């Protein structure tokens, strides 16, 4: 069946964009209907799970409330009012109260709230300037630990304890920048540092609930000048016993730059005595959840070797405060605990639970904290575990599979029985055609084996329509030391492209995690050629299928995937068109502007002034003269991980060499656009990817995007949210 015939069949199945067809296809605009579940927390009795239910509320915002669901069955019920964006549900040790962070009544500024679990109104306990992170109850339930990021002037004025709700910090004009890393996420740091605080719960509750909290119940634990008189951020605070808190801070001596090291000192802080002691050091990228401790002084923390850190696997080390001994219970795994994975002590204080990537899944393991036994796989084949919580006898997870974007599940501590507790998207999925991906293993010419997946359009049936063919979209993941599965954050994107009539292929080439450290470091000094070799081997393997049109292959990817998209169209004529997203295009420009500049030092072993020619030749923009494929470039205005300056250089090169191109920039967005950007932007990005490919495909009756009205085919161009007619 030729392209024209298939195009007619696609039009018959789907109808013109913006209409309802006989087949309920998944569309980009469906993002507004998809519910996400996050942060499961088991109650102390293992009877209930609290979790955050997040949904798009409008084009620019989300609604997020806390729900609870019984472990023994029954429907989930909303637990907090829909007055703000709620997060961080935390049961008190006796289970009588639930603390959480929320923006209700405070605009975008999170505060600590408390609600009785047997019913009653929530009470606001704080009014602080810097928001709430790392919320955690003390073991006896009398105090709450939290961190916030504040500027020196806010601390001096006491706004880190109590602030007028109408207070807004002025944007510095001009900005005077002294730090190496002066912006991150979507914000300029502007002198703010993260500090640690303790809240006395009963003292906070004793005030009149109608009054603004006065801050007298809050104790500031950390000083502006760090232990070596160097300002530092204090990260990942956690309780040990009722009088002990552990946290980490950059290990920078006087005169050293804390932004230019990955070494951290770990501290023990006596809340009553005020004594502070550094007891060990680690290296890596510590953030919230990087430390967890038992009441008897065993401190688990993330450790990544200092040499070539970005390519190495993150382990969990356990330091015993009584003996001073350290062990690495995860060492036998040959899997990393980094990249959106986590770990947690079980309530018995004897067993650690960790999640890792593992051959296209994100799975959970248990291991004795004393490393007396090898890790045991608990659960996870074919799923993506995003968050989990360990109870006395159970483990609650949020995970997604190929047929749903994520729900709450519970299993025994050994993983013997698994029960699904929620079905938050059942109504949406009931009338949508969701296709199961096919696992594909393939080899390069030198015998290197890689894992990938192939997703076909919902209407595909090889037996019913022999000879029918479809164009292919190749997706390349970011990282580069990351991995893809059949679910997770890409579920909607993959299913949407398949529903538009594309076969979708994605894989984990060399450099990916989940296959051992040797494979992760295989791309050292050479991101482009090695990765492209693996991706093209996968493309050729799937193009052997009769239903794949090997003359219509498209490519896209974000972050490192954006780098690889640009590299691919410069080093191969395999792709008819490309969409490069939030990419790195010039390693020198990236090194000078990113908050992750050490990625260049570790992966390439050099700096721009030590070997500028090498870094230039390893950059996609150096080869822009070899690009012929029409290439759309998507970027975010406030992406400070892969700043837009290198994208601008790449687009300028495409323009100068006569390549069909367009740059689309999203205001207010950062590097997480595809995962948690404003709902309208998430939809627009996905529609633009599909529209760009449609314009160069004989299977879609669309002109190239550059020949159409700028809003044609996009929901943003129609007030009713439906795409304009093609």
From TrEMBL:
Keywords: Hydrolase, Protease, Serine protease. Residues 492-696 form the Peptidase S9 prolyl oligopeptidase catalytic domain. Pfam families: PD40, Peptidase_S9. Residues 151-172 have a biased composition (Basic and acidic residues). GO terms for molecular function: serine-type endopeptidase activity. Gene3D superfamilies: alpha/beta hydrolase, TolB, C-terminal domain. GO terms for biological process: proteolysis. The keyword Nucleotide-binding does not apply. Residues 717-726 have a biased composition (Acidic residues). PANTHER family: ACYLAMINO-ACID-RELEASING ENZYME (PTHR42776:SF4), SERINE PEPTIDASE S9 FAMILY MEMBER (PTHR42776). This is Peptidase S9 prolyl oligopeptidase active site domain protein. It comes from Haloterrigena turkmenica (strain ATCC 51198 / DSM 5511 / JCM 9101 / NCIMB 13204 / VKM B-1734 / 4k).
